């Protein structure tokens, strides 16, 4: 990189800085410290000026150790300057001394900028797709020295300084260079490296010093309650997951088995002393468990840095930093790689909808509404008391899009589940009349948020084709999972909130009343293929007084367990990808709390173990039978066999896909066994029972059909006469001739 020419500073004929400049540097109010500090040409000579608090004497040296001149103290608070004996501008080191000792430091103001004009151009355009390589804190070699390059966006600030233990948190010592065209402030600080805590001290446009700010691009943070950012090096992990990534790059996710285990990393399990497991400990325990239980993916609730445990990570202050709760960022890289090597994908909950207003975070970042809308009718979220990103600002969109790309590139994540999409799409979300501002067309749609989501999805799928995006979107917004070029939002999948709501409503009813609510289970098929759906039984259903899935089932304890097993098999046979929150796979009895681990001792009891075995076997069937996953998102893969037997609360349908035998799914949601029940089937012959949730090994009554039923042609139709066990779902697979 071509070095800039030495700056011509304001100085007197003797080359000394003006009294006003000296006073401003010492007070930390100078608007352009690079015009004063560092190395400057005065006539044909070079002068050096530095601010070194506590020093009484300062001698300048080149980086190679050649003495360059003695500097005189102009101000007792630490301002030094003097003529140099060197003829060529170059970085300097200073030997500082006082009565208590001596120390060395390298002058950050004697170095040129790190960012270049092309960075300025793409940053200003909002089209820079590698901001995480430019902003934040990066350990680099620069002009012969090793140090850390800091860069932060604060276009309306009067001054920005980087502060940390390396400068006694003194904002006068490392004031940054203002790249005025972009609003980026940068500074190369030599002689420091990884592991150093830091923040930004920002003077707002009104001259008021703001609370110290964490770095929006911090790649590592201190463990809460501390809130400083930490200088980090990029993950040094040597990845061994190319086979896994290649498979998903070349796969059509809609036609693959995707069964997701949703996990809160801070409460899945804990150490004996109640502290969090590290990523390595989680890898040792969680990955084998997921493999054994048969899930294809782990979906973590947000693991980016957040100050408040009960927010579960949804109030994030560090979008680029894996939380310090679980160790170093490298540990998360090792976890993802270990999961991939075991054939398990990793999905992250991602929160671009809002951010908390903690003083060290993004709110009022440079003394103005920078990341958020200034008008609370657009910039404040009434449900969560949080700020809403300004999706109309290209720098904010770039910050968020880059973050999605960052997790895909740096940590090889397999997907992003985007939280609270509905709150982004509607300007009147949770607002009364008069509390929101219509869009330019007079409507309630947030057109800027739509544009952002489309851009994010285009960039993620364009640069990382093996990565999927999943929308938590609770309304009937059209084409959420349709491509952008077809007018869609561009997500790969959408959570089917209707399925969750309708089915839980149905199973909460006593069996005798279910015949009056038959439509709760059939209605979903009228829209089941309007989007690429994930069926979510998520954390939202087992918190805030909602109990657990087991507790939601009607009836006595035996009926609750039987109904839950039958419900899971109904869901695994239903079109759509699957998601189950941790603990529900073994019928956790206590409502989930982030403050304690799951009740793993329940697996010692037969009913709970039976639910776990049911889920394990369902995952195996789902993955091994193309009929159950190959056409999850296409109507050709589904046909009703029995849709209108409300009196008996029986449902039956056929799943089919190329490359596999068809599978019939039959559910009886009353505690009454149905003898000699006729089920129409598409082909005569033997149909093998591949699962029966009433099997005694699962904790059921053991009723069934001996593992096989025969379908016969009679009177122009084909059907099998069988026993439907109580509160059960069975699956039948056509036996090949």
Automatic annotation (TrEMBL):
Reactions that this protein is recorded to catalyse: Transfers a segment of a (1->4)-alpha-D-glucan chain to a primary hydroxy group in a similar glucan chain
Residues forming the catalytic site: 419 (nucleophile), 472 (proton donor)
Coiled-coil segments: none
Superkingdom of source: Bacteria
Keywords per UniProt: Carbohydrate metabolism, Glycogen biosynthesis, Glycogen metabolism, Glycosyltransferase, Transferase
Pfam entry (one): CBM_48
Keyword Cell division: no
InterPro entries in alphabetical order: A-amylase/branching_C (IPR006048), Branching_enzy (IPR037439), GH (IPR017853), GH13_cat_dom (IPR006047), GlgB (IPR006407), GlgB_N (IPR054169), GlgB_N_E_set_prok (IPR044143), Glyco_hydro_13_N (IPR004193)
Alphabetical list of PANTHER family matching this protein: 1,4-ALPHA-GLUCAN-BRANCHING ENZYME
Stated role: Catalyzes the formation of the alpha-1,6-glucosidic linkages in glycogen by scission of a 1,4-alpha-linked oligosaccharide from growing alpha-1,4-glucan chains and the subsequent attachment of the oligosaccharide to the alpha-1,6 position.
Oligomer and partners: Monomer.
Recorded family membership: Belongs to the glycosyl hydrolase 13 family. GlgB subfamily.
Protein name (record): 1,4-alpha-glucan branching enzyme GlgB
């Amino acid at each position: 990189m071509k070095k800039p020419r030495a700056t011509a500073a304001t100085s007197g004929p003797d080359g000394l800085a003006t009294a006003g400049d000296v006073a401003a540097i010492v007070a930390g109010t100078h608007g352009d410290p690079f015009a004063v500090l560092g190395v400057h040409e005065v006539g044909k000579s070079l002068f050096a000026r530095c601010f070194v608090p506590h020093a009484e004497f300062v001698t300048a040296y080149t980086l190679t150790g050649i003495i360059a001149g003695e500097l005189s103290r102009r101000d007792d608070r630490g301002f030094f300057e003097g003529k140099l004996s060197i003829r060529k501008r170059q970085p300097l080191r200073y030997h500082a001394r006082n009565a208590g000792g001596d120390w060395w430091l390298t002058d950050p103001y004697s170095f040129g900028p790190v960012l270049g004009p092309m960075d300025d151009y793409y940053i200003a355009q909002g089209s820079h797709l590698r901001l995480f390589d430019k902003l934040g804190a990066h350990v680099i070699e620069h002009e012969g020295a090793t140090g850390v390059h800091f860069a932060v966006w604060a276009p309306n600030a009067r001054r920005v300084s980087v502060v940390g233990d390396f400068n006694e948190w003194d904002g006068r010592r490392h004031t940054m260079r203002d790249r005025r065209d972009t609003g980026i402030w940068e500074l190369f600080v030599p002689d420091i490296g990884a592991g150093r805590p830091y923040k930004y001290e920002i003077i707002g446009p009104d001259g008021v010093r703001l609370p110290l700010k964490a770095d929006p691009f911090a790649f590592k943070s201190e463990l809460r309650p501390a809130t400083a950012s930490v200088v980090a090096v990029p993950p040094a992990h040597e990845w061994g997951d190319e086979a896994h990534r290649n498979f998903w790059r070349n796969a059509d996710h809609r036609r693959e088995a995707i069964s997701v285990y949703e996990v809160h990393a801070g409460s899945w399990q804990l150490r004996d002393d109640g502290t969090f497991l590290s990523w390595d400990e989680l890898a040792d325990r969680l990955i084998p468990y997921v493999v054994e239980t048969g899930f294809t993916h782990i979906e973590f609730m947000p693991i980016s840095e957040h100050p408040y445990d009960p927010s579960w990570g949804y109030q994030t202050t560090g979008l680029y930093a894996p939380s310090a709760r679980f160790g170093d960022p490298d540990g998360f890289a090792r976890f993802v790689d270990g999961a991939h090597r075991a054939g398990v994908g990793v999905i992250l909950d991602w929160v671009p909808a809002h951010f908390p207003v903690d003083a060290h975070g993004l709110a009022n970042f440079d003394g103005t509404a920078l990341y958020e809308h200034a008008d609370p009718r657009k910039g404040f979220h009434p449900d969560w008391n949080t700020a809403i990103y300004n999706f109309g600002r290209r720098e904010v969109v770039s910050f968020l899009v880059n973050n999605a790309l960052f997790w895909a590139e740096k940590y090889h994540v397999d997907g992003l589940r985007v939280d609270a999409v509905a709150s982004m799409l509607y300007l009147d979300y949770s607002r009364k009349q008069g509390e929101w501002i219509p869009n330019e067309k007079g409507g309630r749609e947030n057109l800027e948020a739509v544009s952002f989501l489309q851009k994010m999805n285009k960039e993620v799928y364009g640069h990382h084709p093996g990565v999927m995006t999943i929308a938590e979107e609770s309304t009937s917004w059209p084409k959420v999972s349709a491509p952008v070029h077809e007018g869609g939002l561009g997500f790969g999948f959408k959570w089917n909130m209707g399925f969750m709501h309708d089915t839980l409503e149905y199973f909460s009813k006593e069996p005798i009343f279910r015949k009056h609510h038959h439509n709760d289970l059939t209605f979903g098929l009228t829209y089941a293929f309007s989007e690429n759906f994930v069926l979510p039984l998520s954390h939202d259903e087992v918190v805030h007084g909602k109990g657990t899935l087991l507790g939601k089932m009607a009836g006595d304890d035996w009926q609750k367990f039987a109904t839950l097993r039958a419900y899971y098999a109904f869901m695994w046979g239903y079109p759509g990808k699957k998601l189950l929150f941790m603990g529900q796979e073994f019928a956790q009895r206590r409502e989930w709390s982030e403050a304690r681990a799951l009740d793993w001792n329940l697996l010692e009891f037969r009913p709970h173990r039976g639910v776990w075995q049911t889920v394990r076997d369902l995952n195996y069937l789902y993955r091994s039978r193309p009929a159950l996953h190959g056409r999850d998102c296409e109507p050709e893969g589904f046909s009703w066999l029995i849709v209108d037997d409300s009196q008996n609360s029986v449902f039956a349908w056929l799943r089919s896909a190329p490359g596999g035998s068809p599978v019939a799914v039959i559910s009886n949601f009353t505690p009454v066994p149905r003898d000699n029940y006729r089920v129409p089937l598409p082909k005569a012959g033997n149909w093998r029972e591949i699962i029966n949730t009433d099997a005694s090994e699962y904790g059921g009554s053991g009723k069934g059909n001996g593992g096989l039923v025969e379908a016969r042609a009679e009177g122009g139709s084909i059907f099998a006469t069988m026993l439907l066990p109580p509160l059960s779902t069975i699956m039948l697979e056509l036996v090949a001739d």
